[in-house]
Amino acid sequence: AQKITQTQPGMFVQEKEAVTLDCTYDTSDPSYGLFWYKQPSSGEMIFLIYQGSYDQQNATEGRYSLNFQKARKSANLVISASQLGDSAMYFCAMREVGGSQGNLIFGKGTKLSVKP
Amino acid sequence: ETGVTQTPRHLVMGMTNKKSLKCEQHLGHNAMYWYKQSAKKPLELMFVYNFKEQTENNSVPSRFSPECPNSSHLFLHLHTLQPEDSALYLCASSQDGISSTDTQYFGPGTRLTVL
Questions:
Q1: Which residue of A has its CA nearest to B33?
Q2: Which residues pair with A33 in a beta bridge?
Q3: Which residues are paired to A64 by β-bridges?
Q4: DSSP A20-76
Q5: Which residues face A39 on adjacent strands?
Q6: 10-residue stretch averages of pLDDT, chain B, 115 residues long
Q7: N- or C-end of chain A: fewer Cβ atoms within 10 A?
Q8: CB proximity B6 to A under 8 Å
């Protein structure tokens, strides 16, 4: 079974609007971390935001926020006020603290296209 | 130089060649990683080094040979590769590879083509 599921292969959003990228995860480890990365066409994976399993509040970093619903095992990324430069692949990832050291499990990604 | 750098950015090699990929991190981290990203596949972890010691080898074929001479440098030595090894190879580093908040920072990648 997939540990990280991103059900949206591609998404379109109008410039200046908000967009939500879905991510669900599967783990029995009570302690884990959830990460979102952005990968532009240049290839570099850019860290965006982190949410810990014990964090009481949803993480926010500038225009990025994470809608963390622990009971539903979802960690959706919300991008507010989309910009053309937001067009990229977005990957959700999970690290189980009890798992193999350093093992960051990635989803298949969502390709976001921002329309002018 | 800041962050994580990788050289070369692009590499084309024949199946009988020997080449090396280089990764350097300027973040003072102690853990370094090699990942492979093929088209239409999730990112695959290949190797993990923590304080220069290899702590993970994710069933990677022996034609890929990692080397970590110190906490700042990581190499991936390539020999007798196959065309299916063509991919983007990403290097990453993190503070300790252990703590729950440990975040990996990636380099720009080396796009490898094996002819």
A1: A102
A2: A52, A95
A3: A61, A79
A4: EE--EE----SSEEEEEEEE-TT---EEEEEEETT-SS--EETTEEEEEETTTTEEE
A5: A89
A6: 90 92 96 91 88 81 94 95 95 86 93 95
A7: N
A8: no
